[in-house]
């Protein structure tokens, strides 16, 4: 399993429309080799967005805090065709930011259910 989280700072487009953000998230999922089963964009007032892609392989989420030029990205999947750090480029492009801090989270499960 792969669980990676990224803090994206210095976003010069921290409040994108959900359409372009979801398009970028779909592109990231495609690069990872994942299948999108559902999506949920949520707009907050006065600002901010959380978009979720439910993947056959788990999930991809992006939450934005425009007042801080900040976004947070969470990628959790049981497979990936490329490193998530390279696959998130479309999202970084839409937000106009850079991943300043990325972290892999070690997850465990029954050996029969997950490849080691």
UniProtKB/TrEMBL annotation:
Keywords, in A-Z order: Autocatalytic cleavage, Decarboxylase, Lyase, Polyamine biosynthesis, Pyruvate, S-adenosyl-L-methionine, Schiff base, Spermidine biosynthesis, Zymogen
Cofactor: pyruvate
SUPFAM superfamilies per the UniProt record, alphabetical: S-adenosylmethionine decarboxylase (SSF56276)
Pfam families on file: AdoMet_dc (PF02675)
GO MF term list: adenosylmethionine decarboxylase activity
Keyword field contains Lyase: yes
Domain of life: Bacteria
Protein name in the entry: S-adenosylmethionine decarboxylase
Organism from which the protein derives: Saccharopolyspora spinosa
PANTHER family noted in UniProt: S-ADENOSYLMETHIONINE DECARBOXYLASE PROENZYME (PTHR33866)
Residue ranges the record marks as coiled coil: none
Transmembrane segments annotated in the record for this chain: none
Gene Ontology CC terms, in alphabetical order: cytosol
GO biological process terms held by the UniProt record: spermidine biosynthetic process
């Amino acid at each position: 399993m792969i669980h990676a989280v990224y803090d994206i700072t210095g976003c010069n487009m921290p409040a994108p429309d959900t359409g372009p953000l979801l398009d970028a998230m779909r592109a990231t999922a495609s690069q990872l080799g994942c299948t999108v089963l559902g999506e949920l964009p949520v707009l907050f007032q006065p600002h901010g967005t959380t978009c979720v892609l439910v993947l056959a392989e788990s999930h991809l989420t992006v939450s934005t805090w425009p007042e801080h030029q900040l976004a947070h990205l969470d990628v959790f999947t049981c497979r990936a065709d490329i490193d998530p750090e390279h696959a998130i480029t479309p999202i970084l492009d839409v937000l106009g930011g850079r991943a300043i801090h990325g972290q892999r989270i070690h997850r465990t499960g029954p050996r029969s259910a997950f490849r080691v």
